């Protein structure tokens, strides 16, 4: 990694920190969600856009727990475009068996937004996996797409910082993609741990309930699919 890239990465990271306080929504339409592929040389992150307006930069962010994200690289945007464009970024870090990725998209006017986070596992031998999830900092709802290899009941429980269970339940997963939604309306603003258990397989995600004014801006713009 050369000094020029390190400098750009530091500037980008500082910009994200400032943008969480002063940012506004950026304009970028994704024609499909970001995807991550497990390769021998690293994790390949790809995404497509169908429209860009004053789009300066994509910053690829990575997390090992789904809550704390940090920049691992950046890709220049097209500026202004109304055609389909493809992007890719290779993360060569292979240490962790699971990682979460998302994009921070910055525009030339100082606006920003985040994509949904996607999960990658280097060993795909599990009965279920959390493949896509909404922002882990939320005012009320947390949603996730759970891909299951079997049909079974998935148990979940929400624990506070004292490891006390404040909410629990179960949902039936069918084979394929399933939508999971958790309502945090009755919970106080704080950090929580969400645990899933199915067929002796346990998954953990850390959530933070926050006030609406501190929420990260989530870019959910999607290109409509024609029949």
Summarize the structure.
The chain contains one helix and 15 strands. With 227 residues, it is mainly beta. It folds into two domains: 3-116, Immunoglobulin-like; 126-213, Immunoglobulin-like (Sandwich), CATH 2.60.40.2550.
Could you characterize what this model shows?
The protein is mostly beta strands and 227 residues long. Helices cover 9% and strands 57% of the residues. The C terminus is likely disordered. The strands form two sheets. Strands 1, 2, 3, 4, 5, 6, 7, 8, 10 and 13 form a ten-stranded antiparallel β-sheet that branches. The longest helix has 20 residues. The protein is globular. It folds into two domains: 114 residues, Sandwich (Immunoglobulin-like); 88 residues, Immunoglobulin-like. The protein has one helix and 15 strands.
- CATH architecture field of the largest domain: Sandwich
Taking pLDDT < 50 over at least 5 consecutive residues as the criterion, the unreliable ranges are 5-26, 218-227
Return the structural class: mainly beta
Distance between the termini: 46 Å
Strand content: over 45%
The number of distinct β-strands equals 15
CATH superfamily of the largest domain: Immunoglobulins
Q: Tell me the number of structural domains.
A: 2
Gross geometry: globular
Q: And the CATH topology of the largest domain?
A: Immunoglobulin-like
Question: How is the main sheet built?
Answer: 10 strands, antiparallel
Our Rg estimate from Cα atoms comes to 18 Å
Helix content: under 10%
Any key phrases for this structure?
227 residues, mainly beta, ten-stranded antiparallel beta sheet, Immunoglobulin-like, 1 helix, 2 domains
């Amino acid at each position: 990694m050369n000094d020029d890239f390190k400098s750009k990465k530091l500037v980008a990271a500082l910009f994200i920190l400032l943008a969480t306080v002063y940012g506004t929504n950026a304009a970028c339409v994704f024609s499909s969600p970001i995807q991550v592929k497990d390769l021998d040389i690293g994790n390949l992150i790809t995404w497509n856009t169908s429209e860009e307006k004053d789009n300066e930069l994509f910053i690829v962010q990575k997390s090992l727990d789904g809550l704390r994200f940090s920049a691992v690289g950046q890709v220049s945007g097209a500026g202004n475009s109304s055609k389909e464009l493809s992007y890719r970024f290779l993360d060569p870090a292979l240490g962790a068996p699971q990682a979460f990725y998302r994009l921070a998209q910055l525009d030339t006017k100082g606006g920003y937004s985040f994509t949904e986070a996607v999960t990658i596992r280097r060993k795909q031998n599990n009965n279920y996996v959390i493949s896509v999830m909404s922002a882990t900092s939320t005012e009320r709802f947390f949603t996730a797409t759970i891909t299951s290899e079997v049909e079974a009941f998935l148990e979940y429980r929400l624990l506070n910082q004292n490891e006390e269970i404040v909410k629990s339940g179960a949902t039936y997963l069918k084979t394929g993609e399933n939508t999971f939604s958790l309502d945090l309306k009755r919970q106080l603003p704080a950090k929580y741990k969400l645990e899933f258990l199915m067929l002796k397989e346990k998954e953990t995600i850390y959530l933070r309930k926050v006030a609406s004014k501190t929420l990260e801006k989530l870019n959910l713009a999607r290109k409509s699919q024609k029949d």
